Amino acid sequence: MKIIVFKEKYRDDLIFMILEAKNSLGRVPGLNEDLLDIKKNYFDKGDMFWIALDDNDRVIGSVGYNSTENSDDVVLHRLFVKYSLKHQGIGTALLKTAEEHLKAIGKKTVIVHLGNKEHFYESWQFYPKHGYKEFEPDYMRKVL
């Protein structure tokens, strides 16, 4: 596995991976509009988006963030791992990639919106393992 900065040629594979991940959670898969134009919704704003690739150059994970205006905070988005490859360290590697980058550019706090515990049980287990704490209903944050 390798983690790279998102490239446009992976867009459709990324979208497919995320829809498949949502389907595996028993949710009706919906498309997040920001994924249709990652350049505009992340890079053009000065933010980042990474993907994890397997040995066959297929997308197996993703994570991105958007900065909060006039602050040192960011909101983490689209941390997904291909369903059949969960619990192999891919999510942790993606999260560490984002956090290390954020520390290097002087960001101080990472916020994540988790949604309700019933549908996003794994997320509610994952983030606390990495130092995130709930600070509002359905939200966690970590001070870097």
Chain-wise SSE layout:
Blueprint (H helix, E strand, L loop, with lengths): L1 E4 L5 H14 L13 H4 L6 E6 L5 E9 L5 E9 L8 H15 L4 E5 L7 H9 L3 E4 L2 E5 L1
Parallel strand pairs: 4-5
Antiparallel strand pairs: 1-2, 2-3, 3-4, 5-7, 6-7
Helix content: 25-40%
Shape: globular
Mean pLDDT: 92
The end-to-end span amounts to: 25 Å
What radius of gyration results from the CA coordinates?
Answer: 14 Å
Q: Structural class of the secondary elements?
A: alpha+beta
Beta percentage is: 25-35%
Q: In order across it, which strands form the biggest sheet?
A: 1-2-3-4-5-7-6
**Largest β sheet strand count, sense and barrel closure:** 7 strands, mixed
SSE ordering: EHHEEEHEHEE
Give the uncertain stretches in residue-range form.
Answer: none
How many strands in all? 7
Total of helices: 4
Can you give a write-up of this model?
With 144 residues, the chain is α+β, with helices and mostly antiparallel strands. The protein is 29% helix and 29% strand. The protein has four helices and seven strands. Strands 1-2-3-4-5-7-6 form a seven-stranded mixed beta sheet. A hairpin with a 5-residue loop joins strand 2 and strand 3. The chain is globular. The model has no long low-confidence stretch (mean pLDDT 92).
